[in-house]
């Protein structure tokens, strides 16, 4: 059903819902992603989940025992940060091109996609109604 200006609200809503499904699929995939990093000397390896939470830490060999505690913890923190950056890059590349212009990437992965799309549909319907009312008063 088209209005005189050629705007098909139902088609626009269907397109919006299809985009919503694509984003939902990508975010579900994103939840299973991990990031990891290994120190240059291969002594420390860290793995984090898609939210940057540490899920695995491996210390290879016994060389770490010779390090001062402050040096060991600094190296661990540095490798965990590298793993978090890796996870963030992977997550961002998963969503590239899926989010609408101007939305931006969620900082911590917490955003209400359902509410976002429902608000977009409500706005689209209100805009279409306003245009219809304006077109009806021209005559």
Descriptive report:
Helices cover about 55% and strands about 10% of the residues. By secondary structure, the chain is α+β, with helices and mostly antiparallel strands. The protein has a single domain, classed as Nucleoid-associated protein YbaB-like domain (Ybab, Chain: A). A 3-stranded antiparallel β-sheet has the order 1-2-3, with helices on one face. A hairpin with a 5-residue loop joins strand 1 and strand 2. Helix 1 packs antiparallel against helix 2 and helix 1 runs antiparallel to helix 3. It is rod-shaped, with a radius of gyration of 24 Å. About 5% of the residues are buried. The model has no long low-confidence stretch (mean pLDDT about 80).
């Amino acid at each position: 059903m088209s209005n005189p200006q050629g705007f098909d609200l139902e088609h626009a809503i269907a397109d919006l819902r299809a985009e919503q499904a694509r984003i939902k699929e990508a975010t579900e995939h994103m939840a299973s992603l991990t990031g990891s990093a290994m120190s240059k000397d291969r002594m420390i390896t860290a793995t984090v989940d898609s939210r940057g939470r540490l899920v695995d830490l491996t210390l290879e060999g016994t060389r770490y025992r010779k390090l001062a505690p402050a040096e060991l913890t600094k190296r661990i923190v540095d490798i965990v940060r590298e793993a978090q950056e890796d996870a963030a890059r992977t997550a961002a590349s998963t969503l590239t091109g899926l989010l609408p212009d101007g939305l931006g990437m969620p900082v911590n992965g917490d955003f209400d996609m359902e509410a976002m799309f429902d608000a977009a549909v409500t706005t689209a319907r209100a805009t279409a109604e306003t245009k219809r009312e304006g077109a009806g008063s021209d005559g």
